[in-house]
Amino acid sequence: MMYIYKAAVIGAGTMGSQIAQVISYSGLPVILKDIDKTAVDKGIGAIRKIYQTRVDKGKMTPAEMEQKMALISVTTGYEGFIDVDIVIEAAIEDMEVKKKIFSELDAVTPQHAILATNTSSLSISAIGAATRRPEKVIGIHFFNPAYAMKLVEVIPGLATSSETIDDIVAFAEGLRKIPIKVRETAGFLVNRLLMPYLNEAAFVLQEGSSTVRDVDASMVSFGMPMGPFALLDMIGIDVAARVADILYDSYGPRIEPASILYEMAREGYLGTKTGKGFYDYTDGKDNHLDPIIKRLQVEKGAKKSSYSADRLLLAMINEAVMVFQEGISSVSDIDIAMVTGTGFPQDKGGPLHYADQVGIDRVLEELQQYKNDLGHRFWPAPMLKRMVGAGFIGVKSGRGFFVY
Ligand SMILES: NC(=O)c1ccc[n+]([C@@H]2O[C@H](COP(=O)([O-])OP(=O)(O)OC[C@H]3O[C@@H](n4cnc5c(N)ncnc54)[C@H](O)[C@@H]3O)[C@@H](O)[C@H]2O)c1
């Protein structure tokens, strides 16, 4: 078991500064590095703001805040890296940039140091291959905002040692996070399950089956903290389209991205950051998408499909079953990740507990119905048929994904 006395974070942007804040808050010294002074100053400013909010809320004193701030040092070089035990890289999402950073880190950090990356989509194995210690390279995927989100996904690459996995899990727990181990797969766990759900909402809209407000209202009444369109607007339509592309590239037609995402990106409807996305934050009229929807309906010859909250949930549940049958994660980790990472209603336990409550037989039937009506993206995960065949149909038979 390795003790971690000192950490470093590469990149002082949105995620890097949040991660450095989380580390300092746990009481560990941390170096924050970026390419120039403006960038590190911005990062420190962001961290100060996070702490100041805690002070304003009476959750810590100004003196405590200064103690925590004193744990953070900044650099644009590699001073202080000679005795770090772990580095978390959160620079831009670019493989060449990350490979260069990791080969430099390999040279300036002690042999025992863990080199971790916060990448959302790049291969951990490929990043590891840029070093002479791939057994020490691992993915640690934080969620935005890292100071509030408990979940972190831990993703070993092909060469990562089990010791490194154990060490980073312990490190994450020391930060008071909930680490979930995930085998390397496009989108990891949370984004791989969330995207089919969000994408299905986009299909519902472009097929004219429901409205932005009604879909969001139905998911909020199911218990989600916000509806899929409000969430997409926060994520950014350009970012969502890129994630959808990455998943499509890996999983094929099952995750065919809804065309409306590209159309919106082209029009500059990128969500809250541009004032218009699925919602119009400038005048609240929300009719700016009508021409796009009309055009898509003509182009795609879309017939009005039916909408129910189930349609979105089934897309997520089916992907969860795929993830389970591929051995990416355990059933309980899948559920914990979706509750802590996306706000899936806790009283429903997560997508797989929810499937057990609905009944695996009904889940399978509904998926087959949607497959017939809407196409192959609803092709049921083979595991569901095996379960139904064996009488593992959920709560009502005492056994489904879980035992009751
Ligand atoms: N934004 C999110 O919601 C989110 C969530 C999880 C993971 N991620 C991942 O985290 C990483 C960072 O994302 P972000 O949103 O914080 O990006 P960002 O653009 O806000 O910050 C990136 C920072 O990295 C710096 N940088 C670029 N090249 C560098 C180098 N060679 N050395 C040091 N610093 C360098 C930039 O100056 C910038 O300050 C990406 O890999 C991203 O995929 C992002």
Total strands: the figure is: 8
Query: How many structural domains are formed by the residues?
Result: 3
What is the H level of CATH, i.e. the homologous superfamily of the largest domain?
A: NAD(P)-binding Rossmann-like Domain
- For the largest beta sheet, what order do the strands appear in spatially? 3-2-1-4-5-6-7-8
| Integer average pLDDT | 96
- Can you tell me the residue ranges where pLDDT is under 50 for at least 5 consecutive residues? none
If helices are DSSP runs of H or I spanning 4 or more residues, what is the number of helices?
17
CATH topology of the largest domain: Rossmann fold
What composes the largest sheet? 8 strands, mixed
Top CATH class of the largest domain: Alpha Beta
Helix content: 40-55%
Bound molecules: nicotinamide-adenine-dinucleotide
- The CATH architecture of the largest domain is 3-Layer(aba) Sandwich
Shape: globular
What's the helix-strand series?
A: EHEHHEEHEHEEHEHHHHHHHHHHH
Class from helix and strand fractions? alpha/beta
